[in-house]
Fold each of these.
Amino acid sequence: MLSRQASHALKALLELAGDPQRWCSTHALATAQHLPEPMLEQLLLQLRRAGVLEARRGRSGGYRLLRPASGITAAEVMAALNHPFQLSASPIDQLGAGGAAEPEPAASAQVTAALERRLHQALLRTLRDVTLEDLLFDLRSAEAAQASAGGLLLG
């Protein structure tokens, strides 16, 4: 469901969220997360323009979060990347324009289109509710589970 760009951007943001005061170069982020550096540079620039990251030039420069991870939502990241979330064709497109030339859609088509709208709304609601801090907690839980037989933390 996430594009490759969105996935790469989130991985880089999680790396930055792990130590929010540290400036991190594109090269260091790409290396740490095994991401293609040229693509990552473009994603980081988009995130900077959108006010998610700040950048500093120079030897000790790089990128870091502009705001706390708790204030950055997945929806904001997707918007910064111009990532249009669609489950499939728009439910309205599936029903047609509704003009006189088109026949009335079957009841089953109306029901499935309504379901598509509900799924789309739920997805958008989730993206607005999930913060980078939530994803960082999930990341740390997954890392803890891999490091020991203790299992995942639930939160």
Amino acid sequence: MTIKQELYKLCLEYVENRFQTIQNTIKEIQESLGSETKSSAGDKHETGRAMLQLEREKAGNQLAEIQKLKVLLNKVNPEITHQKVALGSVVYTTQSNYFIAISAGEIVIASNTFYAVSAATPMAQLLLSKTVGDEVLFRNGTIKILKIL
């Protein structure tokens, strides 16, 4: 398995883990809402239900974000090597290594550290459409692109 395929697979796992966590949260909230019974302290009951409703709405929004990440990740083809930095590129620079796909944080493969970043991040915006040998300015420093996969 190539580095790009491994990064892609780990990003898929990241999205799936987040999806499962949010699904479980929604299930727990639904069960809590179902088990909430009217008590003599009516206001307390209504406040509890309202809080659970807010939590369910928040989890629903998180679920929608995860769905967007899945759609974005499906646009990445780990089999393609790019000449210019694009969605799905693995970019080696003098500062760090990046996988332009989704924001999944730091990933270590065979003692190499990569940062999975969204194409919307400031770093990715600087790198997009650049080629090997190009330099970009980031935080008062110059970063040179060494290799693109």
Amino acid sequence: MPSPAPTRFTLLATLRRFRGSRRGSAAVEFALVAPMFFALLFAVIETALMFLASQVLESVSQNSARALLTGQAQAQSGSLAACAVSGVSKPCTQTTFKAYVCSQIPALFDCSKLYVDVVSTNSFGALSLTNYGNSCSFNPTGVQYVAGSGGQVVVVRLFYQWPLFVTGLGFNMGCSNKRLLVATAAFKNEPF
């Protein structure tokens, strides 16, 4: 039997075979879609984490405000554990109240980046809150701690700059890779 004649290599024949072949088309399509898919997936995950952190911060602000509302933080013989310095119960200071707030925050936050602002006045109408800026211009200098006495109006605000990671993919919810989370609790102290 005679051997088949060798086929000639031509560019046109190679292009026809390449166009007709479907092997590897799924890999090429995935390579085209994958960057957008992963960018969207990571953006959704980061948004969910940011909203979770915001909700946790709101819960912590409400729980911490209760110590002020009931007068535990202002009392000389308060039972608030964070305000007891070296076993002696004293009224809370800004540092000890922040330590009390930090004791309630889970590992989701870095407490050194948390700022606590407590303001009190005699009525809601006389309340004046300092604007510390937004995500781009946050300046926490001047945060104060004035817990107030019985019957006074108090506002507790917690500020935290949440780090953003997916901003390099074009998804930016803040400024300079950070989003300012603010949790607020406003109330009138009990008559203690």
